[in-house]
Amino acid sequence: MIVTLRRRTAFGRPARRWKPLTSGQGVDARWNDDLRPQAYPSAFASYRGDWVAGGNFTSAGGQPISGVARWSGTTWESIGAGVDGTVSAVATIGDRLYVAGAFTHAGGQPSNGIAAWDGSAWTSFGERFSGNVETFASYQNELFVAGPFFYNGTNQTPNVAHWTGQRWEGTPFPPYGGAIHDLVVYDGRLLAGGDFNWNGRRSISSVAEWTGTEWASFHDQPIRHVQHLRIVNGALYALGSTLPDGKIHLVRWSGSTWTLVGNAPDVAVHDVTWYNGELVVATSWNE
After folding, report:
1. Given the DSSP bridges, would you call strands 87-93 and 278-285 parallel, antiparallel or unpaired?
2. Is residue 190 within 8 Å of 209, Cβ to Cβ?
3. DSSP code at position 258
4. How many CA atoms, within 13 angstroms, populate the side-chain half-sphere of residue 157?
5. What pLDDT, on the 0 to 100 scale, is given for residue 1?
6. 114-117 and 109-110: which strand pairing?
7. Cα–chain center distance at 134
8. Which residues contact 269 (CB under 8 A, 6 or more apart)?
9. Which tens digits make up the pLDDT trace of 171-187?
10. Which of 106, 178, 250, 273 is most deeply buried (CB count within 10 A of its CB)?
11. Nearest 5°: CA angle at 271, between 91 and 263?
12. What is the pTM for the complete model shown?
């Protein structure tokens, strides 16, 4: 079930009551075996006024809808003929909705796991990546994707790739030693966050910047294992492991350093957004 939490601040005050975001049935799955995990939405985007969820579900609102669905305000709906498998990334770029995942068809046509919806039809492009695509970004009129992959088809594209108009290509000196989990464009720069620690010739830890010729360090990093990078109300935030406790926390870029947000060090933060003029986070409490 998808729920919203109404609370005044991210930390330090009791949460108000959770309530369902959508009426009726949410998203679910009906597997042919008992081995696959419980279904849930794991990627979200806003597209043309509708809220879009992607995940490993096979039904939404009681209807057979696989991988990606939109909430119109009253019901869950399929997006065209949809996709036929799990969706791991969703993004709105320009006038298109992009999705990536383990599906083999989009709009009823063969697909290699990346497709775009233009409001009337699905278009698939490129060969299949060797691992999950976790994030999209548009930078200098190019589409970038990133995640724990090494190949696109037979072409080496370790962790990050960009679309040339005909195929996916890797970037010189990409982040290695761990996956990229997120891409954002901040202050005119393309940034990557993840578990990496070098680019093949020099150390780059957790947050890196694309210079056009290589991925370089984005200043000194007191954080590791960055799960998300977010632009919230114009500010850059990261969710990563911080010292001294090594737990996942929310930190904000001041322009010269990363600073911890909030006064509760035992809170693990999983995502952050801006809603109704306030910073809102998804958290879990460590016993």
Report:
1. unpaired
2. yes
3. E
4. 28
5. 38
6. unpaired
7. 5
8. 239, 248, 249, 250, 281, 282, 283
9. 999 999 999 999 999 99
10. 106
11. 155
12. 0.86
